[in-house]
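User: Can you recover a sequence for this backbone? Please restate the input before giving your answer.

Assistant: Of course. Working from this structure:
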């Protein structure tokens, strides 16, 4: 296993990581997805059954990550696990896929969620530009306005905080909690 000159900093505490997981699950998972699920199935018991099934799968995944983390206690998460199991190329490709697609989509979803929740409190106004696309037999409505600008600004603010480092980001998170 190669040694790096600048190893990743293991600066997140149990409280930090627990806050990240809870915030991600409750912030976007519960508040955004439950409404759509309820509209699709029209039965609260089916929504609850889906959440129980998803909870069981999430628990299995969490236990798997806990076992991997105990076996491979280096910083890097999935990258380290994939590098150990499948080699450098697979880990490298996963890392770039995460940066370019997986994390970018998740971050965009969080920005949209923030702007959506904010629009429920404050009147943000109508979109400046709207266009409907027909893709694979479905209508896709594309909007651009203040709501999207707010989402981008939130993403940029948290990107700057992230670039400042783990310690600074943790301090900002602590201030936001107070």
């Amino acid at each position: 296993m190669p040694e790096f000159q600048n190893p990743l900093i293991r600066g997140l505490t149990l409280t930090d990581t627990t806050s990240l997981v809870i915030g991600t699950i409750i912030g976007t998972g519960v508040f955004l997805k439950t409404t759509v699920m309820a509209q699709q199935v029209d039965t609260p018991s089916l929504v609850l059954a889906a959440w129980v099934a998803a909870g069981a799968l999430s628990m299995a995944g969490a236990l798997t990550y806990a076992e991997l983390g105990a076996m491979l206690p280096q910083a890097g998460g999935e990258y380290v696990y994939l590098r150990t199991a499948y080699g450098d190329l697979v880990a490298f490709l996963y890392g770039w896929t995460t940066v370019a697609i997986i994390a970018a989509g998740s971050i965009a979803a969080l920005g949209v969620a923030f702007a959506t929740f904010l629009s429920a409190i404050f009147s943000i106004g109508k979109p400046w530009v709207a266009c409907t696309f027909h893709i694979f037999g479905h209508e896709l409505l594309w909007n651009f306005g203040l709501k999207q600008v707010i989402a981008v600004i939130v993403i940029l603010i948290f990107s700057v905080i992230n670039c400042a480092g783990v310690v600074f980001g943790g301090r900002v998170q602590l201030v936001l909690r107070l």
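That completes the design. The chain has a mean pLDDT of 80.
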